[in-house]
């Protein structure tokens, strides 16, 4: 059996985005053309791969089985095409430390599999520093939290924040809140301390970490509370804004910024965006679920 690579790519894209419309946009095609390619693929295989209703697009049982082999087929095809040229390209990507989580290795692996001739240089830093580097031309693309009123970039997902601590962390009203935070240049730290000052809650920074991982370790050890993206809260911690009467924090958005314009690079960016949305639980606008259901009303 011989499969049409373009049809397989259409199937994988629809499966990733759960939408014919968004798949058409990602592939630079039309919804009708995507439907025709998928129908031909299903006729070739002899089974339905995608179940489609007016409100829902999802994989069939056979489609779920076929999805990973389909990815492997596309990756092998891309490697074969890439082997025909000796030209290697460089891709300088910045990922904000408070945005990227366990999905980062998957993002990079998907990007590498999509374009084996692409050398990826990754910089992990605070959103503010990455934005400055992007504006200076030091990065080709960046995944960051939206800063201030900046309006450029593609929105990948909404971003919600919460106050997290261990279940046995003790805080009494009127006492300074023991706070763990990253370096003073971190924009989230400014938002956190500003929110506490605005409602008159005294605070003391008992841990100054270099990066979100160090802060997470301090919070997991019960030394302090800290603000995290609800996607990236440390294991074993709970959201405590209602418990301790802490202020709500403004929601934000995760952006993909890029200056790349050539076709190959734009395709790589589409792959990156799809991989991020696939592995982000809030990519479709769903609000985060807190570990303690009684605190769900404190979502920000």
UniProtKB/TrEMBL annotation:
InterPro entries: LTTR (IPR050176), LysR_HTH_N (IPR000847), LysR_subst-bd (IPR005119), WH-like_DNA-bd_sf (IPR036388), WH_DNA-bd_sf (IPR036390). The keyword Nucleotide-binding does not apply. Keywords: DNA-binding, Transcription, Transcription regulation. Residues 3-60 form the HTH lysR-type domain. Belongs to the LysR transcriptional regulatory family. This is LysR family transcriptional regulator.
